[in-house]
UniProtKB/TrEMBL annotation:
The lineage of its organism: Eukaryota, Metazoa, Ecdysozoa, Tardigrada, Eutardigrada. Mg(2+) binds at residues 79, 161, 163-164, 310. Pfam families: Inositol_P. One of its GO terms (molecular function) is inositol-1,4-bisphosphate 1-phosphatase activity. Keywords: Magnesium, Metal-binding. This is Inositol polyphosphate 1-phosphatase. The keyword Magnesium applies. Transmembrane segments: none annotated. It comes from Hypsibius exemplaris.
């Protein structure tokens, strides 16, 4: 397989998926019926959902990827199943096998959309119309042409999170005011994540993050996307090259910026606040995105609340720009601070469960937490500080 073509296909698929996400969210009168409650998320201590968009996007990616790369489509793994039941009990199975027929798809969608022909037609259009990736902020498609690499057809798998930060998508609220260049919650925090990994080593190879609600035209009320991508494999690195300008901090501010989840314990928050400028934002994908854009130096998560589908795509992008994603529990104990480049062995892998004995719904958790970084030069200082402050925070939890 031509790596450049695979990358271009994934970028296009991410924007096709963004069109689906916007089409489903557009119909506010119908939308609340298009949300299915999942089991209460005990790890994050909050409700969990899936929507018609989640299911449709995952199967759309599988189908259209299969048209170009049939084997890759057979290796798509994701958060969602292909079934969905709306609030009124209407059930739909959106499998790749029925995707070749737009008419059949429209008929299936009509049932779950309460017979709304216009809404079904709009969603079908989003699924089957070739996306205009040039309208997507930062897609940098010309940069993919520089990738000169051939990939073995049967050596790669794909992790997909069709909609990360589903709770923000469901609430549909406007994004909170920017804090150090980062939105703390709201639609801006929703992302679509498509990551490729090596089936022999488990290493991340390429990834695409699409932010479908990046910018809204106040005249037309139409949202447009931002797309960030990266590839790191066989000695080659390429990426979209998008960076945001980090706001000027007051002289009194702590120089290193760490982005985190608001669900961290108070003890951990207080410990990290002592050494870092901390930002608490929604959505794992959005926190990773903020890191790749240069708005933070590290993303730290002390608990097992993310999955392989959350981290595969961002991990590949971070490796492309000189960073990485490590198992936090291993970093705190085993990191070699003299030769930081030797710590690649502690990075997350995507082939095997971290805990093979875990229940089926938890086996793909990133069990040791996350330490993601954008620049290896800063890693030594961050880990040194983390060892102390995390120990203090964990000690407070024990007291």
């Amino acid at each position: 397989m031509d790596a450049a073509k695979v990358l271009q296909t994934l970028i296009s698929l991410s924007e096709r998926s963004a069109n689906v996400a916007r089409a489903v969210r557009k119909h506010s009168d119908l939308f609340q019926t298009l949300v299915q409650d999942k089991e209460y998320d005990k790890r994050r201590q909050k409700p969990d959902f899936k929507t018609l968009a989640d299911v449709t996007i995952q199967e759309t990616i599988r189908y259209f990827l299969g048209k170009e790369f049939p084997y890759l489509a057979s290796q798509v793994r994701g958060e969602e199943s292909y079934s969905f039941t709306n609030k009124n009990g209407n059930f739909v199975n959106i499998q790749a096998s029925i995707m070749p027929s737009p008419d059949l798809m429209k008929e299936l969608l009509r049932g779950v959309l309460q017979g709304d022909d216009a809404a079904a037609a709009e969603l079908v259009q989003a699924i089957y119309t070739e996306p205009d990736v040039k309208s997507c902020e930062g897609f940098a498609l010309d940069r993919t042409a520089a990738v000169d690499l051939t990939l073995a057809t049967d050596n790669f798998g794909i992790w997909v999170d069709p909609l990360d930060a589903t709770a923000e998508y469901v609430s549909g609220k406007g994004s909170e005011k920017l804090f150090h260049g980062v939105f703390l919650s709201g639609l801006h925090c929703v992302t679509i994540l498509i990551g490729v990994f090596d089936l022999k080593t488990g290493e991340p190879v390429m990834g695409v993050i699409n932010q479908p609600f990046f910018e809204k035209d106040e005249t037309t009320q139409i949202w447009k996307s931002r797309c960030v991508w990266g590839l790191s494999y066989a000695g080659q690195r390429a990426h979209s090259g998008i960076r945001s300008i980090r706001p000027q901090y007051p002289e009194s501010a702590k120089p290193q910026v760490v982005i985190m989840s608001g669900s961290e314990t108070d003890a951990i928050k207080e410990a990290l606040d002592e050494c870092f400028t901390t930002i608490y934002a929604a959505g794992a994908g959005y926190k990773f995105l903020s890191l790749t854009l240069g708005l933070a130096d590290a993303y730290i998560l002390s608990r097992a609340t993310t999955f392989k589908w959350d981290s595969c795509a961002p991990h590949a992008i971070l490796r492309a720009i000189g960073g990485g994603v490590c198992d936090l529990s291993k970093a705190l104990i085993d990191f070699d601070l003299q030769f930081v480049e030797n710590n690649r062995k502690y990075e997350l892998q995507y082939l095997h469960p971290d805990d093979p004995d875990a229940e089926i719904d938890e086996c793909w958790l990133n069990a040791g937490g996350i330490l993601a970084y954008a620049n290896i030069d800063a890693l030594t200082e961050i880990v040194t500080k983390l060892r102390q402050v995390m120990a203090d925070g964990l000690q407070q939890l024990d007291d």
